[in-house]
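Internal tracking record. Fields below are filled automatically when a chain is submitted to the structure queue. Please do not edit lines marked as system-generated. If the sequence contains nonstandard residues, flag them in the REMARKS field before resubmitting.
Queue: standard
Priority: normal
Entity type: single polypeptide chain
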Amino acid sequence: MRRSLLNPILAFVVLIILIISFNYVGNTIDNYFPAQKPEEITSMSIGDTVLTGMKVIDDAKIRKVPVIYHPEYLMSLFQEEKYLPIINGLLTGALETPISQMASGSISPQGVAQGFEGPGFLSVKGQQLVVNPPQTFVWAYKTGYTVGVKTENGVEIRNGGTSGKVIKEVAESDINNNTIPQDYVSITTFKNWYNKANVGNYIYLDYSLAGFNDGRNQVTPDQIETFFGESVVTYMKNYPGGSPVMAYMGNHTENVTITYSQSLGSYPEYGDYSRAYNAKAFAMAWNGTIIPPKTGSSGKENIGFDPCPDPNATGGYATHGVCPAARALRGATTGSGLPLPSGILWGELSVAYDTSPTVGVKVYNTNDYPIKIVMWTEGSGAGLVVYGRVVKLT
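SYSTEM-GENERATED OUTPUT FOLLOWS
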C-alpha cells in the first residue's frame, strides 16, 4: 500500500524535475540562440511596396524550435489553423515559430498582407513584421533606371544606371524596335543619339520611382503600373527626369485657392494664329501638374510650339503667345502665396527668348500640402483668354 502511494508521488516529483530541467535548458538555449528577427523571414526586402493579398513571409525561412521548450506554440499554431505543422511537430519534436510571434495583424497567419487599401510597404515595428498602409499622399521622383551605353560595336542596355547590370548587348546592325525599349525614347530619337554619341555616352531609356516621401524602396519600371496604376506611368512619360510624381492619392479634398486670367491680344506682326496656338500649348503643358509639398516641378516636356517670326530673337524666331499664358500661371501661383516660378519674369515679357516655356519654367510649392496646377483657354485667335488656377489638395 505504501509502495503504491509512493510511486505516483515519485513520478510527480520526477515530472516536476524534468519540467524544471527542460525549462532551464530551454532558457539556456534561448540565450545562445536569440529569437528570430522579423526581417529574417521575409519573402522580399524591408521597404518594398506591398498590395493586399501579397505573400510577404517565406515559410521556409521560419526557424523550428523543440516543442518541449515552447509547448505554447502548439496553441498558437492551432489558432492559425496550421494543422500539418502541428502533426509534424508532434512527430519530430520540432515546431516552426508561429507567425503571430513575429508579425502583426496586417499580416495573416499564412504570411499574406491584409487589412489595408492601396500600396503599403513592408516594415518592422518593434519586434514585429508589419505592412505600413499608404499615407493619403505618396510621391517620389522620376529617376533614370534603364540606360543605353554606346560601345565600340553597338550598345549595352543596363538596369540601375550606367554602373548597373548589363541585361542585353545590341549590335549596331540590330538596333530596331524590337531590341531597344521605347516607352520614353522613340527608335528614331535613339538612332539620332547613337549616330552622334561617343563611346561611353549614355541615354536614359526607362525610369523608376525613387526617393519616396514615406521612405519605401525604389520601385522599378516593371512594377510601377502594378502598384500605382497606368495613370502614373502616363504622367511620368510627360515630365522630365527628376520631376516629382504623385504616385498615390487616397481620400482627399480639392479646394481652389485662386484663379487668374490673361487675354492674348493682337500682335499681327508675330502672327496671331501661331500665338494662340502657343498659348494653348503652354496651358496644355502645365494643366494637371501636381506638385507635392516642398518640391518643384516643370511642365510637360513633350509639348511642341509654333515658331513666330521675330528679328530680335536668336535665329529670327520666338515662341510668342506663351507670355500671356505664363502671366496667367504667374498670377495664379504668386497670388496663392507661392514664389515667382523660376524661368518666369515680372513684366509683359514674362518668358525670355532663350527659355523653354515648359522644362525651362519651374513652380515651387512651399506649402505643407500638395497643389495642382489647372490651366485652360477660352475663345480663339487674338480674343483667346488663358486661365491659371492653383488647387489645394488636403
